[in-house]
Specification:
alpha+beta, Jelly Rolls, 2 domains, eight-stranded antiparallel sheet
């Protein structure tokens, strides 16, 4: 494949004020003041390998935010008991946890190397980091990189089994209204997983941000898709062409995509960039006729494809046009993360000014005493990178934040 020599990238030091703006979720809105051009310029400084060689000295803020660990669903997934043991845990629960009867739920052993080959269990959060040796540049126009084994097998299972009960007919964005509508060019079934929905999803999103250097807060939730035989997604760009979705309040234009493959596909189902100058698969019977039109990637369980919808000058890259080839045999599962130039607001946002954290409902204290912080964490304390309605009563306000006063609401 096409490769380039690596070169080191020294990122500028960020002041505490700017770092807080990246970390602040709904409480700090200073990030919105960064222009799209400035962010794209920063990304353009990152070489193909520099963008993925994420040592401790080159990580942007945003990917390593503090994560609120939801109730024990994912601990049970790993077979971690209240005493910290490694025995199998409970079965499927309301949060969409995998049943403990599958081998994939085994906890990663204490002596296992976090960056070793797939051990069959869900990884402990914050133990896996980008491994440059597993990344290959497959195209320069568009900029596209393939990461072998980005997801563990258990993570693929977790996403599929969490999403399967909620699958609906896939839609596309209408260019005139900016809303989701059915279309004949996209024939898959899909569902969405909210950003930071639980510690498993949050850890995957942390690694995406570490690899891409796009902060977690710039990403949408995961879109999970299932393609059966004959289903496809015709050539399209992930970048928006309508003004509604490009508004700064929604994070602006989509700048990059990470496409994760959750299953092996027997035949077909490749991702192809039909406008690339290179046609490396012409005459190769291992690829479908659809995939021979340009640079293409076979769907392989655990692999991930990162590509950019904007070039290094900040303009839309028409060569990022891509297609999901028809599945000829088997079933294709994938998960897509779209990332924006600016912070993408999702879920509930605190109405208070920067530095203020408090309850938003008069009944929060009573609800907390009744155990709602644990029973209903999404509403009470929020997901990672989002805000809950009863943060102070649940004891989840950040250190150093102050209670609300009458003039502490956002103007």
């Amino acid at each position: 494949m096409w490769q380039e020599e690596a070169w080191a990238v020294e990122l500028p030091r960020l002041t505490p004020r700017v770092a807080r703006a990246f970390r602040g979720g709904g409480r700090f809105r200073a990030m919105q003041r960064f222009t799209a051009a400035a962010f794209v310029l920063l990304l353009a400084c990152l070489d193909a390998r520099g963008a993925r060689a994420a040592g401790d000295t080159v990580r942007l803020p945003g990917w390593q935010n503090g994560v609120y660990l939801s109730s024990g669903a994912t601990q049970r997934l790993r077979g971690v008991s209240s005493g910290g043991g490694g025995s199998a845990g409970a079965g499927v629960d309301g949060a969409g946890a995998l049943g403990s009867t599958t081998a994939s739920t085994a906890v990663v052993g204490a002596g296992a190397s976090p960056d070793s080959e797939d051990t069959g269990g869900l990884p402990v959060p914050d133990t896996i980091h980008v491994d440059p040796s597993k990344v290959t540049q497959i195209s320069w126009a568009p900029r596209a990189y393939l990461y072998r084994g980005f997801l563990r097998s258990a993570e693929c299972d977790y996403i599929v089994q969490t999403s399967a009960p909620r699958l609906q007919k896939s839609t596309v964005v209408d260019n005139d209204t900016g809303k989701s509508v059915p279309s004949s060019i996209r024939t898959s079934d899909g569902s969405f997983i909210a950003r930071g929905a639980d510690e498993v999803i949050a850890d995957i999103e942390r690694r995406i941000a570490e690899w891409s250097h796009v902060p977690v807060e710039h990403g949408e939730g995961l879109q999970v898709l299932r393609y059966e035989v004959g289903q496809k997604y015709e050539a399209h760009m992930d970048a928006f062409s309508d003004a509604f979705n490009q508004d700064d309040s929604k994070g602006g234009q989509r700048v990059a995509t990470v496409l994760m493959y959750l299953s092996d596909v027997e035949s077909g189902g490749e991702t192809v960039f039909p406008l690339t100058s290179e046609k490396p698969h012409e005459g190769d019977d291992a690829f479908s006729a659809c995939a021979r039109r340009g640079v293409a990637v076979k769907a392989r369980r655990g692999d991930a494809l990162l590509f950019w919808s904007m070039d290094t000058s900040g303009k839309l890259d028409v060569k990022s046009t891509h297609a999901g080839c028809p599945v000829l045999s088997g079933v294709k599962w994938s998960a897509t993360k779209w990332m924006h130039v600016g912070a993408f607001a999702v879920g509930h946002k605190s109405p208070f000014k920067s530095g203020v954290c408090d309850d938003e409902e008069d009944k929060c204290a009573a609800w907390a005493r009744a155990g709602e912080c644990e029973k209903n964490p999404a509403y009470m304390v929020g997901h990672p990178h989002e805000d809950g309605h009863c943060m102070r009563s649940c004891g989840k306000c950040p250190a150093g934040s102050r209670p609300n006063t009458e003039d502490a609401f956002q103007s």
